[in-house]
Design brief:
Length: 505
């Protein structure tokens, strides 16, 4: 403890010091200043309190950090000493992106120390992280033989170490290797996904006497952006005969059960869905599936994929969507936030008993999604994304045609919203406004006294006619799209009317 104890002949006498902190330097201020240069070097500075001591003072600096999009004390490393200095600043050259750092500092001299300051505010580098390193030491295991004569083999690799990003998943490609041309065959690559914590996978449906190339790629996520490593590769050959494991024999060679029917062409063994991600102002998922084992070597099959929200926050409803696919994966975009989706996949065959496979997915709330640059989306009270929906509902190609009519000008204005600019919100109408821009040559107002006007138009009328405009006069025209999310951004343009008896188109 802090007391000093001395023997007194029959025991010990302990006494606290008169001044425990006499000569001990004061703690520095806990507020620290961080300055990062373009090379990633970080200078950490702090303010020292005035110390009445002639002995030199040393500063011990410690740090801790955690991976991820948010700071977390629970996931932080232990405190580590990174500097001992006599200055009130030091330079770190090993900070990494995608890490949240905290620092603390203690002042110490020959009399002791008052301990460390409270942890500093968090610091995260402004640099973008590098993609994961490529997997190392790819190797294969033993072959096993299937009942149809094809083979399976396990492939293993070493995970990348100490990268800026944690590996989210591995993508494994394989195909036949053509030795003479040293290129891949014309057949499209097979591929599959392996979890980032599992550096191995099994390749299925390989053939005897064939040479294969296997490529493994590590994938990490920075916000909603995927960062991919370069591909590591392994080339191996399956001998025509050799030490290849046989499949386990059936337990019972004789059975009184009816034989199992062959799989329907294009039958689906399993369906997987990736986590929803936000890209190109849309919420997206990727659905991928695996053919039944008996169909894994057949040609391309056709599938019908259907998706529909069955339950949404705010009771939003949408019709069922469908698409026909000749592959084993499909990207669904334009999903609604905070909805439970039913996704159905079915082979398209001449058989009338092809089985549907159904899975369900719940999309996240708008407020929980991050866009590019780790910025959260701007959402309204109903949980809809405002910034993208308003941007996509901006009127485009505002144009005008003027005609002379009864001594004044009649203006016909029209615009449209691009069909590709879809939104989660329905268009309810348009707000059209015009205002006369004053000029020096006309002092008096028009005969009808109107110099500006605003009107609301129905959703199916992207045009309007304005009469009694003045010739040789400038008008500012403004159009806004009205939707269930509110008013979109305005499109504004200045037009000048022609002279009387002139038609401009």
């Amino acid at each position: 403890g802090t007391k000093k104890c001395c023997p007194n002949g029959c025991g010990y006498t302990c006494q606290a010091p008169a001044s425990i902190h006499k000569g001990v330097p004061l703690k520095p201020r806990k507020d620290m200043i961080f300055n990062e240069d373009t090379s990633g070097n970080l200078q950490v500075s702090w303010m020292s309190k005035f110390n009445v001591t002639v002995e030199p003072v040393l500063y011990i600096v410690q740090r801790r950090w955690n991976y991820g999009a948010y700071p977390s004390e629970d996931d932080s490393t232990e405190w580590q000493t990174v500097a001992v200095t006599t200055e009130n600043h030091f330079l770190l050259k090993d900070t990494r992106p995608n890490r949240w750092y905290q620092f603390r500092v203690a002042a110490i001299n020959i009399h002791g120390t008052r301990g460390f300051t409270a942890p500093s505010k968090y610091f995260c580098s402004t640099r973008d992280p590098l993609p994961p390193s490529s997997p190392k030491n790819i190797r294969r295991g033993n072959f096993t033989t299937n009942h149809d004569g094809t083979l399976n083999v396990h492939v293993y690799w070493d995970s990348p170490q100490d990268g800026d990003l944690a590996v989210h998943h591995y993508k494994v490609f394989w195909n036949q290797w053509v030795p003479k041309k040293r290129v891949l065959s014309a057949k499209k690559d097979n591929w599959k996904i392996s979890d980032g914590k599992v550096p191995e996978t099994e390749l299925e449906g390989l053939h005897l006497g064939t040479k294969y190339i296997v490529q493994v790629q590590a994938v990490g996520y920075w916000g909603q952006k995927r960062l991919k490593s370069t591909k590591s590769r392994l080339i191996f050959e399956i001998p025509i005969s050799g030490e290849i494991s046989k499949p386990p024999a059936p337990i019972d060679e004789v059975s009184n059960e009816l034989p199992i029917a062959h799989a329907v062409p294009g039958s689906i063994e399993s369906v997987d869905v990736t986590a929803p991600h936000y890209s190109n102002n849309q919420l997206q998922i990727k659905v991928y599936w695996k053919k039944a084992e008996e169909e894994s070597h057949a040609g391309a099959s056709t599938y019908l994929i259907k998706w529909k929200p069955v339950l949404c926050t705010g009771n939003i409803s949408r019709p069922e969507n469908k698409a026909t696919v000749q592959d084993t994966h499909f990207v669904i975009s334009g999903l609604l936030f905070a909805c439970k989706y039913k996704i159905t996949l079915q082979p398209v065959t001449i058989w009338n008993h092809a089985t549907e496979v159904t899975t369900f997915l719940t999309t996240p709330k708008c407020s929980s999604i991050k866009a590019r640059g780790s910025k959260r989306l701007i959402c309204d009270r109903d949980g809809h994304h405002l910034s993208s929906s308003k941007l996509m509902l901006r009127p485009a190609k505002l144009a005008a045609t003027f005609k002379a009519a009864n001594g004044s000008i009649k203006g016909e204005f029209h615009w449209h919203v691009l069909e590709t600019q879809s939104s989660q919100h329905s268009v309810t109408g348009f707000q059209f406004s015009w205002v006369e821009i004053p000029s020096e040559h006309r002092k008096s107002p028009p005969e009808d006294g109107i110099i500006s006007q605003t009107q609301i138009l129905p959703y199916d009328q992207p045009y309007v006619t304005v009469e009694n405009l003045q010739p040789m006069t400038s008008y500012r025209i403004q159009v806004q799209v009205l939707s269930t999310a509110g008013d979109g951004p305005a499109t504004s343009k200045v037009f000048q009317t022609p002279q009387i008896f002139t038609t401009i188109s």
